[in-house]
Specification:
The protein has 22 helices and 27 strands. The protein is an alpha+beta fold.
Amino acid sequence: MSFILGVCISGHDASACLFRDYDIIAAIPLERITRIKSEGGRFPDEAVNEALTIGGVSRKDIDVLALSRSRFPTRYFDGHGAPLLHRLRRGIESISGSNRGVGVAKEISIRGITDASKFFRSGDFLVDHGFNPDAKVTFYDHHQGHVLPALFHNPDWQDALLYSADGGAETGFYSHRWFHDGHLETLFGGDEDIGCDFEGSSLALAYGFATLALGYKINRHEGKLTGLAARGEARHFDELRSWFNVDDRGRITSKSGTHQQLRELIFRIARDSTKEDVSASVQKLVEQVTLESIAKLARHCPSRNLGISGGLFANVRLNQVLADSGLFDSIFVVPPMSDQGIAFGGVYQYLMERDGMETWLGQRRPLRDLYLGRDYTGLVDDHFATLHAIQKVSESPVEVAVDAILAGDAVAIYTGRMEFGPRALGARTVLAATVNGNINDSLNARMDRSEFMPFAPVLLEEHADEVLDLPPQSRNTSRFMTITCQVKDPWKSRIPAVVHVDGTARPQLIRREENPLYYDILKAYHARTGIPVLVNTSFNVHEEPIINSPDECARALLDDRVDAVVTTGGFYRRRKV
């Protein structure tokens, strides 16, 4: 049995995950430990330490370290085989203090060697970071890291299209892969594309530029545009669409110019338009161009299964368009679709290379849940007991939590292991009743948020078809809140807090075996109201990561971000003065 540590050193959303062969032990985003939103750009030591602590192992116990092909200090690269001018330029940068490190992918491109172990000084890196110097270091493909979890966690798929799209990596902005006849074929966005010029072609960057142009933060606030889009008209779609070309094989390129020129175009459009219309235009752009690309790809590489990942597919409305297209019988969005999720895929790539495709396919299993952080069960109750300002109201948490929700309170649930990925899924979640649409404004004010999407609903899975028009192809991925669907007409007025202006919702379906406390609260609420739905919004203040530790949970309660906290050990409120 091997301990494998997967690490993402992306410019944002760095992370670490620990496996024992094919079994996931822990997965930690760096931001949850350092409390710096979307932190990246360096080796995520704090996340590594947390994952190892959860697994009960040390750095010396790691057998394999799977790294993203990121930048590393110059000292870890062997100069032998690199062109002389390249070595001189690196030396000048290092002496001048301007050295940003060396990109593994750039070295691959310059040297013409895809095996980075041929020039990366693995032993030095391992010793410097406290690992066993005999451990194996391997590098994984960014885009393949995005999509491999979709294939691994859908064991019923005998064929599939795997498609990624984001703001850019060593092989460009997209990848197309086709799993068929027992093997995985890279069609576009593989090693052969390292160093190729795909300027101006990224839909994800177009969406990011629109986010910036409307006064928000790129790689952070794109969801605001998704919410605003339903309130506007796509008046600028034709102008934006003319920028992009989709060839017969589904490859997206630019007709017109560079990303800087695309940025200037979008900023010009934004100066003379409303936020709603800009949002609607760029939303329609990503929907139409992505759908056209995947449809053309599917004609040449037939499959009724689609696995998608990468930052573009954080766009839940886009994912619904793909699901509703009629092209696929099954669609799965990798739940940690941002760069933090590629650490998963990096481990799966190593295992595939180590064991061969047949063995790898035989190890596939459904993704049960994403509760992969540290388990603070019991410790949070012990911590609350030391704080005079917090009072335990009851040791029977379920019914008391339902009483509070019925009274209009916002109740945070803090249970078990923290979720991995961008969504709160019932371990660090705020629950509220869906019957009052005003809860959105009041809770957003308490959390210092300015959101245009409604809160997400959590539903008992057995009642999903009663409330939602949820097609079969979307059902599995809806367990992770990665896609929208239509709410049935009779329910739109009954649960207004979770229904968008276009009649959609972004659901999470829950089963008891995944999270008993979460499920039992919702089940008891349904028994008393006939409504199998509650608000689920993430337990965090605006611009802060989702809460991790008991101390962070206590601070949120004391700061009046929520009215109460429910754990497996009790129900807590602020003590009345």
